[in-house]
Each structure stands twice: as structure tokens, then as C-alpha cells.
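Changelog-linked ticket: adenosine-5'-triphosphate example.
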Amino acid sequence: MNDVKAITVDHLTKKFGNFTAVDNISFEVKKGEIFGFLGANGAGKTTAMRMLCGLSIPSSGNATVAGFDVYHQTEKIKKNIGYMSQKFSLYEDLTVKENIRFYAGIYGKSNEFIKNKTGVVIKDLHLEKEANKLVKSLPLGWKQKLAFSVAIFHEPEIVFLDEPTGGVDPVTRREFWNLIYEAAATGITVFVTTHYMDEAEYCNRVCIMVDGRIDAMDTPQQLKKACDAASMDEVFLKLARKALRSDT
Ligand SMILES: Nc1ncnc2c1ncn2[C@@H]1O[C@H](COP(=O)(O)OP(=O)(O)OP(=O)(O)O)[C@@H](O)[C@H]1O
């Protein structure tokens, strides 16, 4: 990790009518950093992430992603990021190989690049026997690992992961995080939302949102120290308890 900024956020705000979903947030993420974005349901995580991905125009404030401005350079942002969410799924009726080729094609990669890298990804994920099977035949954990590999196939500067490991067992989640570490080691910046507090421990830095605002932001070690908590679970409970709004 170095001091190059992958993401800069300065007083960013998003209003829906009179309701302020994201309220004046500011932070920076360094290149190669694994940055965890936590908060109770309705805290504003997805709304903030959508602005950073160039999918939603802010009401006020500024932000840059990979050096591009979130108001005027949204197409450039989209080309330079990867995105994966629990809800975003691969095409179930395409094979593993067809899914990889389809998404790589969207980013305009050459046939040679796609062919070579498809082989590498399938080998790394140990999916050789499944390469020509329909994605719907794979277990959820395999689909998620494949979806992550597809999201970074075009070698983006930053990958945004919105609750990427929802619904899978701890062992598979651990394997998924190994992929995240490997990606970060190649210099890809990882911006991840999660509800799992063991995953918060794996992040270099964590930001906790409460009612649209940033309530705390630091390394997991420092947050535990500051809150006099034994685990991130305890940190989260102490901070999120203050939330007035919740979607659940
Ligand atoms: N398009 C919209 N119009 C009106 N309100 C919205 C819209 N999108 C989100 N909100 C509201 O903004 C708040 C923040 O929502 P957001 O989805 O960003 O939260 P979140 O932290 O991602 O929650 P979750 O963990 O449940 O996904 C919620 O109260 C939500 O109902």
C-alpha cells in the first residue's frame, strides 16, 4: 500500500426529497487498501457506494474514484472499477466460461487477453471440471467466488463489493477473503460492505456509518481499543445502538 489515493470523498451528501440518506461524509481510501464500510440496515452504505460507482449523482459535496469525478466522469469511473453485490448474479443460464467471456467483452478486452486469462481464472478457482457447466448448477459459494473473479477480470483499479458473502458458511467466506487479499496484493483497492463482523477484522480500515453519517473510522485494532471492546462485533453493537433509523 502507498499514499496514492484511490478514492477521495469530501462532504458527500445524498438527499431523497427531505430525507438525507448520506449526510456530509468525508474520507479517503489508499491504493491497495481493503476498506470496510459497515452500518446497520438503512445506514446509507449502498447509497454512498452507488454514488462512488457513478450510478447516482450526489446532492452535494465532492468525490473522486480512480481520479475521476463522480458528477462529470461517471463513464470513466465505470470503466475503471469492478462491482459485485450479493444481489448481482452471474447469468445462471450461461456456462462458467460464457459468463467470464461475456463480462470481459463488455470491458473491451482483446480476444487473446480473454482467452488466456479465462484459463488462469478457471484454474485458480479449481473450476476446470465445471468450466462448461451452467452457472446455476454451482453451489452459492462457488458462484460468489466466480462473480468476484469476473468483477476484477478486466483488472480495475478499485473493486466495490456490496455484501459479497451473504448467505454462505464461514469456511467459504474465509476462502472468498483469500481472493480479496490476493487482489489487494496486486494493487487493486477493495471497498467492501459487510454485515459479518469477523470480516470487518480482515479489513485494513473500517468506517462505521450510523444514520447516514460516519460515526467511527480507523483500523479494527484502534476501534477496539477506543471502544474498550474485545471484538468488532462489540464495537459495532456499541456504535450502531445509537442509530435512530433502521430498515428492519
Ligand atoms: N431511491 C430512494 N428513495 C428514497 N429513499 C431511499 C432511496 N434509496 C435509499 N433510500 C433510503 O435511504 C436510507 C439508506 O439506504 P441504503 O440502502 O443506502 O442503506 P444501507 O446501509 O445500504 O442498508 P442495507 O444494509 O439494508 O442495504 C434508507 O432509509 C432507505 O430507505
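Closing comment: Example verified and attached. Residues 16, 19, 21, 39, 41-47, 245, 247 surround adenosine-5'-triphosphate (CB under 6 Å). Residues 5-240 form a domain with the Rossmann fold fold (CATH 3.40.50.300).
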